[in-house]
Amino acid sequence: MLAGNWKMHLTIGESIALARAVVEGTTGVTGGDVIVAPVFTALASVAGVLEGSQVAVAAQNVFYEDKGAYTGEVAPAMLRDAGCTYTLIGHSERRKYFHETDGTVNARIKKALSAGLKPIVCVGETEEEREKGVTEFVIGQQVKVGLYGIDSLEHVTVAYEPVWAIGTGKNATPAQAQEVHVFIRRLLGGVYGGAAADSVRLLYGGSVTSENIGRLIGMEDIDGALIGGASLKSESFIGIIKTVSGG
Ligand code: 13P
Question: What is the CATH number of the domain that holds 151?
Fold first, then answer.
């Protein structure tokens, strides 16, 4: 799975153009899921462009209620209505700037799943937490609380995005990423059983480029990537997709 998180970039027109370029550049590429996550205002237009293609649409966030007096929020069914199949939940930028917690992440995941929207749950430690040696504790909390009460991982993807690697040009080494992915998979195995943990897709995110994706994806427990900056240009995103698909 390769997911491009466009964050707060691109107008509707620019999003449509990029979505078209991604479809053209990946025609004939098979064997995995390609996803783009535009801003809310561009979701429906991008979904229209991608209809019938193998590229799916994700929202960057979702609220945990169906409807009501929640100014500024968007419900899962509304995102489905706009053409989304997936939604990011708990991105570190949401946690940092909008005070989202593992508890609200959990509520969002539950509500998304109940509406048929597949969550891509983001977890990751800060630089300070890594330096203090508490990476596994932090990730463990995020995964356990985030997924608390969720019976099945069938529609769940987890993205490990070390905060210090996001937008910094300093990606985790393949070995560092693999180490945390193994930790997450073991943790999930303890709750959901080995078979479910083996089949859940674990993405790495943080300064992924067409240059470093090959080594990252070569690691046994890295099943894809969540890509920020390099997904905003069709050449680099398509380069990443082609490297992974061997095309
Ligand atoms: P960058 O690829 O720009 O580091 O962003 C990663 C990210 O946050 C994707 O969600």
Answer: 3.20.20.70
